[in-house]
Amino acid sequence: MATREEAKQIRREQILAAARDMIRETSRTKFSMRALAERAGVSLVTPYNLFGSKQAIMYQLLDEDISRFGRQLVRSKKDPLDMLFRAVTLGRKYFDDEADYYRAVLFSVYSDGGTEYRSMFQGPRMALWRSLVEKAVKDGYLAKEVDANAFANNLASIYFANILEWVAGGISLRAMEIRTHYGFALALHSMAKPAHRARMREQVMSSQSRLTRLRG
């Protein structure tokens, strides 16, 4: 017999699975919590008790994907600087595979603007970026003076700003990837150790050329 916590986890998974299915079917997040509860086979109060709000459910969906994404990224076994760029490319591939689903979830998250939106720069959503920056400093790719939290927040801001423009329909996913690479390369070049600065400058120039070709 399942314990109380196990039963809660089962209900959480039911709700998240139902939310994913409803978004994939409609490319929208406008469903009510009542409709979500009915789809998940739970009482109306259960989603509120377990998550607090629909926005929190959207974030949990993203967090699950980020965890899966992080495991896949680690398997790439590249150095920390390359992994930062690889993370952006891998993210673009995720969005490419289910563009309507991710655009709907991200639009819901970004249009909220409240506590949940501000938490985009905290907790698990920042852990991946921070861990890569910390490793780059520890392994001697970035200057030891780099504050991992501040630098990771800067990279995340570049990434999320470009994602938001894609969500709003202003740029393509390919442009989102290249523009983020360009911003990352500029930031990393400024704090890279001398042995790695030339590589980051090459990345700056490569991204700049790709942006020029994209505009053409």
Show the helix and strand layout.
Blueprint: H1 4-26, H2 33-40, H3 45-51, H4 54-74, H5 80-97, H6 99-112, H7 115-118, H8 124-138, H9 148-167, H10 173-191, H11 194-215
Helix pairs in contact: 1-2, 1-3, 1-4, 4-5, 4-6, 5-6, 5-8, 5-10, 8-9, 9-10, 10-11
Fold and architecture overview:
With 216 residues, the protein is mainly α. The chain is built from 11 helices and no strands. It has helices at residues 4-26, 33-40, 45-51, 54-74, 80-97, 99-112, 115-118, 124-138, 148-167, 173-191, 194-215. The mean pLDDT is 90.
The sequence of SSEs as H and E is: HHHHHHHHHHH
Instruction: Briefly note the structural class of the backbone.
Output: mainly alpha
The biggest beta sheet reads: none
Mean pLDDT across all residues, rounded? Answer: 90
User: Uncertain regions: pLDDT < 50 for 5+ in a row?
Assistant: none
**Helicity, as a percent range:** over 70%
How much of the polypeptide forms β-strand, as a percent range?
under 5%
Radius of gyration: 19 Å
Number of strands: 0
Q: Give the termini separation.
A: 63 Å
Annotation field: number of helices: 11
Shape: globular
How is this structure best summarized?
With 216 residues, the chain is mostly helical. Helix content is 79%, strand content 0%. The relative contact order is 0.09.
Give descriptors for this structure.
single chain, mainly alpha
